[in-house]
Every structure is written in C-alpha cells, then in structure tokens.
Amino acid sequence: MRPIRRIALSTGGGDAPGLNAVIRAATLAARNRGWDVVGIRDGFNGIMFPDEYDGKGVITLSRESVRGIVHQGGTILGTTNRGNPTAFPVQQPDGTWVEEDRSQELIDKFDEHDIDALISIGGDGSLTIACHLYEAGLRVIGVPKTIDNDLERTASTFGFHTAVDFASQCIDRLFSTATSHGRVIVVEVMGRYAGWIALHSGVASGAHAVLIPEIPYDLEHVAETIRRREERGAKFSIVVVAEGAKPKGGDVSIVGKSVGQAERLGGVGQAVGDALGELTGKEARVVVLGHLIRGGSPTAHDRLLGLRFGAAAVRALDEGHNGIMVALNPPTVDYVPLASVRGRQKNVPLDSDTMLTARDLGVNFGDAPPIEPNLGES
What we know:
Blueprint: E1 6-11, H1 19-31, E2 36-40, H2 45-48, E3 58-60, E4 88-91, E5 97-100, H3 103-112, E6 117-122, H4 124-135, E7 140-144, H5 160-181, E8 184-189, H6 196-205, E9 209-211, H7 219-231, E10 237-242, E11 254-256, E12 264-265, H8 268-280, E13 284-288, H9 300-318, E14 324-329, E15 332-337, H10 353-361
Helix pairs in contact: 1-9, 5-6, 7-8
C-alpha cells in the first residue's frame, strides 16, 4: 500500500443525523496529518458521472468547508440509495433490466483522482459495497450509519439516538390528544426490518402496545389490551408500529420498489389502525412519522458518536488498517472486519433488558393476551 496523500469521503444510503459530524472529524483529522481530503457527491455518483455535476462531483474538503456543520442534519455531500456500482442497473433494448458490476471502473476513477483510500459512511448496503471494493483492491475504511440501529458488530449507530428522541417527543404529544378524545392512536415509525426505533421510543413514551418485525402480531391481543384498559377507566390507547412489522402468517407491507433501489415499506400503520377500530369499536387515528425522524439536528449523543467515528476512521488508515469498520464497543471505538458485517442484520434480542422491562410494564407485543393486573390489596 502506497503512502496516503489523499483520501475520499462518501456518504451513501439514507441520510442520518450525525453524518456531517463524521465528515468534519475525518476532514480535520486527515488534514492535521497533512493529507488532502475530497468528498464524493451523492454516494459514488459524483465520481462515476462527473458530467452530471459540471465537473464538481468530487469536491475538496477544507477546514473552511466543514466549519460549523456538526449541528446540521443530513450530509453536505448528498447521498443516494440508487446506483450500486457492484450491481448497476442497465436497461436492455427490449426494456428489461440487468445488473452490471462496474466496481473496477469505479476503482479506476479513484486512481485518476489520485485517491489513496476511501472512508465509506453508510448502512448495510453501503458497507457491503465498501467490502466488495476492498476485496477488489481499494483501500477502504467503513463507518456505520443508520437510524435503524440494525448493523451488527457495533453497539450503536449515530442517528438512532436522534430518531428515538424525536419519535418519543411526537408520541408524548399524541398522548394529550388521545386522552382528550378517548381515541386509539397508532404511530408508525421507520426501522425497516428491525424494531429498535419502535421499541425504544414506544417504551420510553409509555405506549400500551408495540409491534416490531421480530414478533409477528395477532391484533386480537392488542384489541383485548385496549378493551381491558377501557374497563379500568382508561379511554385511550397508544400503539407504536414499526414499518416492517407483520401479522402472524402474513408479510410486510410494501408500498413500492424502483429499479436499483430497495423495496419501500409502509402502510402497516393504517392497516393496524383500521383493524383495531373494527375490533374495538373505538375511533382509531393513524400518524406516520416517516422521514420526520430521519431529519433535523442530531442530538449531542449522535454528534459526539459521529465525531468519534470520523476521527477513528482516519486513525485506522494512519495505523495501516484496511477493510475494516469502526465500531462502538463501549467504552471505546475499535475495529471489526467489513466482511463480518456484510449481509448481517442486528435484530432486537427478545430477551434483552428493554424487552423484559416492557413486558413487566404490561406493554403488549401482539404475541400474547394482555397481563391481567392484580388489583387486590397486597
């Protein structure tokens, strides 16, 4: 491996609060070592298709360009979840689509720009691409990013804390209107095929039922929870639903899929709300938080974690590492092989302390009848 003189930063997949903190930390840490730093616009599109950016698809990252960005949401580099260079969609004359591996073309572009190493900041899809590029000969360090917290080998990802905090604030607000009108309110949150956001925000906010992908649900159990609450004088209920939750014997709710893009989940909240209205006879309203929990300014927790990850990625390069991902292993940030993350998803452990706490509090997960409280004298 040749000495490092210039590195590139790339942000791919969905945006997450804390991305700009990573960019700032990596830029300053690299420049303090005398390295040049560039940023690639919109994943790898900026370097692959420079004409679409008027020659500005690869931009210089200076101390001035990353000044004052830590508190900003999103990413100053832009991002995309399309155009995977290892499986690039190409339309054939007959209208069908095939996937081409253009990774060598991408690596050649890095050589043309005299880029010695890549810091790839992304979720499971982006880090899988990063691992492929590493195996093809590019020097790569991965930084885990996802609000869903579903990446293996790291205790947490930046963006998750912000998403949970905002979702919790929204659910708190819904309590007052649900109480006033005596309604059932169903809150759908992001998270794809893992229930971390729904579980943490639901339990923190005092929701009465939480439906997550890890536990297929039977809505009769949730409806019974609502009925028993009403018998005890509680006329309202809050149900938090992860977008990837599914009924027993059913499948996830998909709203669409574009060529070269992962399927988009959604609609489960409305289905749950409609069904609970019929089962309980109560008025049910549905709130989909959607991208609201993805945007906005990162919490102090996520800013600090992003800064730690960005600086650690540069340290890893300086120490001669390659093909690794920086990971939070409290209380430190350490390194794990990219290959150990590829194709793996971190689901909510059903025996985790948070799950056990929720069940002790009487939160219903749609897998069993509600707990009948002992209202007798002790």
